[in-house]
Amino acid sequence: MGPAAEPSSSEKKPSPSNAPSEYQKFEEKVKRCLMLEDVTPQATIPMVQTALGQFGTVVSIDIINDPLDPKHAAKRVIVEMKTPREASHAVKEIREHPFMIKGVPRPVRALHAVATMFPDRPQKPSSGTKRTCEWVKPGDPEWEKYNEFKQLAKKHAQELTYLMEVIRKEEEKLAQEQEEKVRENVKKLDEIHLCVKDRVVHRLSRYYGMKFEGD
């Protein structure tokens, strides 16, 4: 009987001394990271670095675009700090106070990072478990079930695209309303300032017998 066949490279198990070490380093990195959700599409790496720099030393920043609408949809940002303590401090501060980018408050959410947030995460070492995959063709016993899953995934993608468009329109409408309110408030403040400057308020206070202590 001939010698046993050598397993192919795809069947060889990873070295137990290397794989756990790589994953352990990744786990340590996760502890130093936080994720920001609903970040404005106009945000850039320098902007985020400046905003997070007040909480500690920023090591790296990874901006994740929405695959369905990379230009207009809100972004997610994974930020790696120097220590886990700095990451926890940043999450706490952002949850309790407005997050500022270039002097403007942004309604972002801060979360402690978990391994599943990283698309390039290494494979977790397994205890002898081997994963396999195979192509399913028409006529196979599992074809109908997997085809239903495929169609359901397409339906969910279409629904998500529609929902994102609705949210985007609502956000644009809200932004226009807020901008209009800001203009109205500025106009009122200008009129008040003009009345004080022209001493209209002083004349009115004397006319109605009221005391005005302004300059």
From TrEMBL:
Keyword hit for Secreted: no
Q: Which SUPFAM superfamilies match?
A: RNA-binding domain, RBD
**What keywords is this UniProt entry annotated with?**
Coiled coil
Q: Name one Pfam family in it.
A: RRM_1
Q: Does the keyword Coiled coil apply?
A: yes
> What region holds the RRM domain?
38-96
**Region of interest (Disordered), residue spans:** 1-24
Q: Which InterPro entries match?
A: Epigenetic_reg_gene_expr, Nucleotide-bd_a/b_plait_sf, RBD_domain_sf, RRM_dom
Q: Which residues form a coiled coil?
A: 160-188
Lineage: superkingdom: Eukaryota
A GO MF term: RNA binding
Name this polypeptide is given: RRM domain-containing protein
